[in-house]
Design a protein that fits this description.
Helices cover about 60% and strands about 0% of the residues. The protein is an all-alpha fold.
């Protein structure tokens, strides 16, 4: 007498056995099932990524201005970077509250 759970299925049968239809967690596993939440996350991500692109642009402009000796523009670019970071943080935190 064997104490295997399914003694008629050999442990090496694998994919060739017709009684085994699928291996894995099933369809849709790991995907977002709520379309409203998914669209909200996508919108928030698009907003934060666009702010990130703006920050990269501001770093380039500010560094160029600093190297040319125009410190006023460099400080405005730095302030823009800090402000856009705070806006991105605010947008992420605001959406996080609604997620729960």
């Amino acid at each position: 007498m064997t104490d295997a759970r399914y003694p008629q299925i050999k442990p090496t049968s694998g994919y060739g056995d017709p009684r085994i239809r699928s291996t894995g967690p099933g369809p849709g596993a790991g995907g977002e099932t709520d379309p409203e939440r998914s669209s909200m996350l996508s919108g928030r991500l698009a907003l934060v990524l666009s702010i990130l692109v703006g920050q990269l642009w501001a770093i380039g402009v500010g560094l160029n201005a600093w190297m040319m000796g125009n410190t006023a523009v460099a400080w405005w670019a730095a302030a823009f970077g800090v402000a856009s970071f705070l806006v991105a943080l605010w947008a992420w935190r605001l959406g996080e509250r609604r997620d729960r």
